[in-house]
Amino acid sequence: MSQVIALAGKGGTGKTTTAALIIRHLAKTGRTPILAVDADPNANLNELLGLEVETTLGEIKNELRSAVPDSMARGDFIEMRLNEAIIETDDFDLIVMGQPEGPGCYCAAHAFLSQALEKLLKNYAYVVTDNEAGMEHLSRMNLRKIDKLLIVSDASSRGVMTAGRIAELIKPLQLEVGEIWLLVNRAPQKIPEVLDEYVKQVCEEKGMKFLGYLNESPEIFEAEINRRSILELPDDTQVVKEAGELFERLLKGA
Questions:
Q1: Which of 55, 165, 226, 243 has the smallest number of Cβ neighbours within 10 A?
Q2: CA–CA distance, 58 with 63 (Å, rounded to integer)
């Protein structure tokens, strides 16, 4: 059975960077095979992983309208194109949802992603999915069972409050979530006492486990500005070491 780790959080919190760091940590610690899923229509996880995307699930969904050859069954066509959409590396594979088929609704692309994931999940020990800011789309996917949901916040009371609201949004979506964790990202070296107390309060009220604070990192900032892969960061980079310790807690549920 695959361990599914899903990330959520409002835009600008560093959620996608956190997803890339988790994938890096899983690979470095030999927890393979890994499937990375970029389920955000504004896809950029591939850039943080140093990969080029040629085919997305959204594009394949569009092709089903007119590009299926008369001599080929739709199921065979989907399987062929799905295999072409998977970006393979030595340590992990990546699949990107991409843009939906038309303006206004992501439903069809999400439905196709769920079908693809259903086939793929059994082949991987870990699945790490980077989601868009909202949570409603998870109800349209076959990720009904999420082992660990990691909600990423910035180091502000408003950000933590928003993370708590996201945790609340899960309840009506009929998702089976094993654990809900909160990570406060891009934190200052010295955490204000009032913020720390509020984090503990919100975690207790919303049923979240507090993973910890991940400090602001100049190395991450430089890598993102220069569009370099997070995988290129040296193992002894401070943020990589700090993140690794936090992710071990996440994986072990401690």
A1: 226
A2: 9
Domains and CATH numbers, the chain: 3-252 (3.40.50.300)
d(CA 150, CA 135): 12
Residue with tokens 């996880």: 45
Q: Which burial class, exposed, middle or buried, applies to 38 when counting CB atoms under 10 A from its CB (0-12, 13-18, 19+)?
A: buried
Beta strand pairing status for 3-8 and 93-96? unpaired
pLDDT in tens, 157-198: 999 999 999 998 887 777 788 999 999 999 999 999 999 999
CA triple 138-246-176, angle to 5 deg: 25
- Nearest by Cα to 211 from 180, 235, 186: 180
The tokens for 251 are 């994986």
Residue 151 pLDDT level (bands cut at 50, 70, 90) = very high
B/e letters for 146-157, b = 16+ CB within 10 Å, e = fewer, are bbbbbbbbbbee
Please give the order of strands across the beta sheet that includes 126-131. Answer: 87-88, 93-96, 34-39, 126-131, 3-8, 145-153, 176-187, 209-215
